Amino acid sequence: MPRNRVIYQSEALFNTKDSVDVTSSTPPQTGALYINQFSRVQSCNYNFNIARRDVNQFGNLAAIDRIILEQPTVGVDFTYLLTDMANEKNLGFSVIDAGITGIVNITSAAATQSCLSGILTNGFVNTKNYFIRTVTEGNDASSFAGDTAANQTVGSTIGLGNGFLTNYSINAAVGDFPTTSVSLECLNMNFSNGNSGAAPGVTSAGNVAGGTFVLPQATGNPNGENPLGKVAALRHGDISFSLTKTQGQSYGGTDLTTSAAIQNFSISMGLNRTPLQKIGSRYAYSREIDFPVTVTLSVTALVQDLTTGNLVDLVNTDGLYDAVITLAAPAIANTDLIASEGVGYVMKRLNLDSQDFSSSIGANKQVTLNFSTQVGSPQQNDRGLFMLETLPLH
Fold first, then answer.
1. Rounded CA gap, 304 and 300, in Å?
2. How many whole angstroms separate alpha carbon 157 and alpha carbon 147?
3. Residue 81 pairs with which residues in a beta bridge?
4. What pLDDT is recorded for position 107?
5. In the predicted model, is pLDDT for residue 124 greater than 60?
6. Which string of DSSP letters, residue by residue, matches 148-161?
7. Is 91 strand, coil or helix?
8. How many CB atoms neighbour CB 88 within 10 A?
9. DSSP symbol at 375
10. Pairwise pLDDT comparison (109 vs 258), residue with the higher score
11. Does the CA dihedral 329-331-332-337 come out positive or negative?
């Protein structure tokens, strides 16, 4: 009987772990040992575009051929709810254990490292393959009995080869769940029956890398999470935000360093990449990050009491700020089961880029402040974006 439709219940998202070389499938991309599953996924979109160059000549109106000169681009974007840093680790980010380091002493701690420390040295070989598993209609992917064994032929899997992270952003607002959005650029897409098939990775020569994959059975609590202690989602009432001036002149106007009535905030980090090509290779042999990498913080708050300040003073003596954002898990009885719940973001050496006031009849007056900083090297722990886990309960 043909399938009528596919809905979210039947899908699960996976990627390969850091130990897998996706250009040679060594070790084989097999089972939970080498495959990660993403949790709390809300949406996933993927597409490919093929650029062609016309070959024209005198005497013919239409092109005599249309040749592919550049590698196809496979775009992927997905969103998920924030609960812990497991998904960030799956993406390759470096995450700090705040239970050891301490969120207050993050700058001076020896273990402190930029969130990009684990990505900066990754080139073509250390990219990740991604998989979208679709089980048979009407079944939950998280407990599909057919996937308890390998090499099943029911359902299908879409493979996305050689995924490079190009954007990461977090959004949180009053009355909504904090969410993360991720964008990727991949080099290949293939389609397989069941939960196994040919690995989607390709080599820089543009050849299929070879090897196979076998996906593990999806679960509603991946990465070894205990369902009794796993929170479903974080809430805006458990978010704390602090902004501290570390140097220079205060900006004046709305002061976020006090108990401001923040309505929403967003953090965005774009990782634009340049494909490195060479004669004799149909595909780029690497897609390296374009530096500098700028991280932006946008905060919208209700206008309350204004603070004194003068823009000309800011121009003469620019201010630097550190922001600490904690998205804690609500306290429950089984506190020993959720020691790693909740997330934290620390942004250091922020500069104020803009302050925008808006006021209209029937609405509360609001102000939006935009800050930015740059990601440093693994040795620069005094600037950039840091990700933390193992935070105290709220």
1. 12
2. 12
3. 179
4. 46
5. no
6. GSSS--SSEEEEEE
7. helix
8. 19
9. -
10. 258
11. positive
For the record, the structure tokens of 314 come out as 């800011």
Q: Considering the entire predicted model, what is its pTM?
A: 0.90
> Which DSSP helix (H) or strand (E) runs through 354?
strand 343-358
- What does R_g of the chain's alpha carbons equal in angstroms? 24
Assess contact for 122 and 19: CB atoms under 8 A: no
The neighbouring-strand residues paired with 309 are none
Long-range contacts of 99-105 (CB under 8 A, 24+ apart): 99/339, 99/390, 99/391, 100/390, 101/388, 103/324, 103/326, 103/344, 103/346, 103/388, 103/391
Encoding tokens for residue 42? Answer: 């809300």
What type of residue sits at position 296?
A: T
pLDDT in tens, 15-67: 998 878 887 777 888 887 899 999 999 999 999 999 899 999 999 999 999 99
DSSP 111: T
The candidate with the shortest Cα–Cα distance to 281, out of 69, 25, 128, is 69
State the amino acid at position 201 in one-letter form.
G
Which amino acid is residue 283, in one-letter code?
A: Y
What are all long-range contacts of 313-316, with beta carbons under 8 Å and residues at least 24 apart? 313/249, 314/248, 314/249, 314/251, 314/252, 314/352, 316/249
70 with 362: CB under 8 angstroms?
no
Tokens of 315: 């121009």
By CB atoms closer than 10 A (0-12, 13-18, 19+), residue 68 is exposed
In 3D space, the residue among 166, 330, 311, 322 whose CA is nearest the CA of residue 253 turns out to be 311
The two tokens of residue 281 are: 């290779």
**What are φ and ψ of residue 182, in 5° steps?**
-130, 140
